[in-house]
Amino acid sequence: MSKSGKFHVQNRPFAKGLRRPLRTWYNIRRKALPSVFPLEVFKMTELFAQPLDSLQKIFDTAPAGSRILLAPGEYRQKVMIRTPGLVIEGAGQDKTVIVWDDYAQKRDEFGREYVTFRTWTVAVTADDVTLRHLTVSNDALDPGTKGQEVALTVYGDRFRMEDATLRSTQDTLFLGPLPKDLIARYDGFLTDDLRADRLLSQHFSRCRIEGTVDFIFGCGAAVFEDCEIRSLYERRGTGYIAAPAHALSQTEGFLFRNCRLSCEDAVPDGSVFLARPWRDYGLCRFENCRQDRHIAPVGFDPWNDTRRDLTARFFEDPPVPGRVPWINRQSEA
């Protein structure tokens, strides 16, 4: 915090009236994430939490822009972050763990299945939230019988995660917004903040993200820099890392830059695809990523028997011999 009392991100104040510069797929790919300019000035308040405290109460009552320090331990809680500008810091990736165990086939009090989009352990719906030095986990751990198991859902803009771990199996990380058809389908089922229909950006630095099938998915403009993307053993056989669902109008998708794509020892050679398009026009790029033995030689999958290979916008740099012929074929803005 500066002497003026303004909370700084990237050495710039949260200043009223400033607007973010225009971003393009080129500058989000080639340059650092642009400076953050929320709409109001936040004053820093520092709060502390212990594992038996209610994180939901703390997050809801904290002033916008607060820094919340989480002591080491397991926080077995399902929480939503609705206050803008919060900076939530743990004591270390392996020391502070927020964990819950919801899953898609679980029934609520009305007998309805949770479906994928209510299984999160942590959901972020506020803008300008930062998480660092902690783990968010879903330990339902049986997608074959329970369905999808989300650890983190993000519907906030300008979200940042640094030096943190996300751990689950199928659908570990959802990056909002939802595809347009699901926004309509879940009207009256999901709350409005979980159906936000706006462009959202997210940035992950030096994180470890673990899962099995489609474990990074959604429609966000998300950058992953210097992260470890770790595939876990999938007893059903095939694994998939990314499942983008961007609309054709979106020019920013998922970017994996300088990441390590690793796996557990039990994962078979060549059994994991880099990405498959969850919807037509899904946009995903892998740039200067190190790949272990588990990555399938062809690299990408069109999603079962669909023809999304005709519309998917997938890129890999540098090119890898033996990949499917339908990547790296569209010009970029």
Keywords:
mainly beta; Pectate Lyase C-like; 10-stranded parallel beta sheet; 8-stranded parallel beta sheet; globular
CATH class: Mainly Beta
Number of helices: 4
In helices, the fraction of residues equals: under 10%
Radius of gyration: 19 Å
Arithmetic mean of pLDDT:
89
Instruction: Name the shape in a single word.
Output: globular
CATH architecture field: 3 Solenoid
For the sheet with most strands, the description reads: 10 strands, parallel
Query: Please, how many domains?
Result: 1
Question: What low-confidence regions span 5 or more consecutive residues with pLDDT below 50?
Answer: 1-40
Content-based structural category: mainly beta
Measure the end-to-end span.
38 Å
Could you tell me the strand content as a percent range? 25-35%
For CATH, the homologous superfamily is named as Single-stranded right-handed beta-helix, Pectin lyase-like
Number of strands: 27
CATH topology name, in short, is: Pectate Lyase C-like
Strand order of the largest sheet: 3-4-7-10-13-16-19-22-25-27
